[in-house]
């Protein structure tokens, strides 16, 4: 299948895709803040620049886009039909980078929570509740 956009237009479109402060991130942050959790965002001092850092709970939250981070069995993680080799390599590198960053964070004593974009779109309150349960368990030594 041939891309119906010119190479220049496709490049422009792709350059506009946000890597931080996405709608799912903002939604989850809002719900966590309303629940009383205080956090920092995009800490460059931590591997992978976690989307949400709850230092008090020694927990980081990554809000992963299903397409870019390859959420298994998710329809949003479809493979592009054009330039397939390029995309497979890009996706493989992203997933491997995620694994490395999580391993380093775990070695540093951080708990890692991964939340998927589609989960937030489906039921953001449920996701925020799950994160809260994880934090409560951390707080009480569970």
Description:
This protein is about 50% helix and about 10% strand. It contains five helices and three strands, in the order ααββααβα. A three-stranded mixed β-sheet has the order 1-2-3, sandwiched between helices. The model has no long low-confidence stretch (mean pLDDT about 90).
In short:
Helices cover 51% and strands 11% of the residues.
Radius of gyration: 17 Å
| SSE ordering | HHEEHHEH
Low-confidence stretches: none
| Cα end-to-end separation | 52 Å
Mean pLDDT: 90
Strand order of the largest sheet: 1-2-3
Question: How many beta strands in the DSSP annotation?
Answer: 3
- Helix-strand makeup class: mainly alpha
How many helices? 5
Q: Helix coverage percent of residues?
A: 40-55%
Largest sheet: 3 strands, mixed
Strand content: 5-15%
Form type: globular
């Amino acid at each position: 299948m041939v891309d119906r956009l010119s190479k220049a237009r496709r490049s422009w479109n792709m350059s506009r895709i946000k890597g931080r402060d996405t709608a799912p991130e903002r939604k989850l942050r809002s719900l966590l803040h309303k629940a009383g959790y205080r956090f920092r965002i995009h800490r460059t001092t931590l591997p992978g620049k976690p989307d949400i850092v709850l230092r008090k709970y020694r927990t980081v939250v990554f809000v992963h886009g299903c397409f870019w981070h390859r959420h298994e069995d998710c329809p949003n993680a479809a493979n592009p039909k054009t330039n397939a080799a390029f995309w497979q390599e890009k996706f493989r590198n992203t997933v491997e980078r995620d694994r490395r960053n999580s391993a380093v964070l775990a070695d540093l004593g951080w708990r890692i929570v991964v939340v998927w974009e589609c989960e937030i779109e489906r039921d953001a309150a449920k996701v925020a509740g799950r994160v809260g349960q994880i934090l409560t368990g951390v707080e009480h030594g569970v």
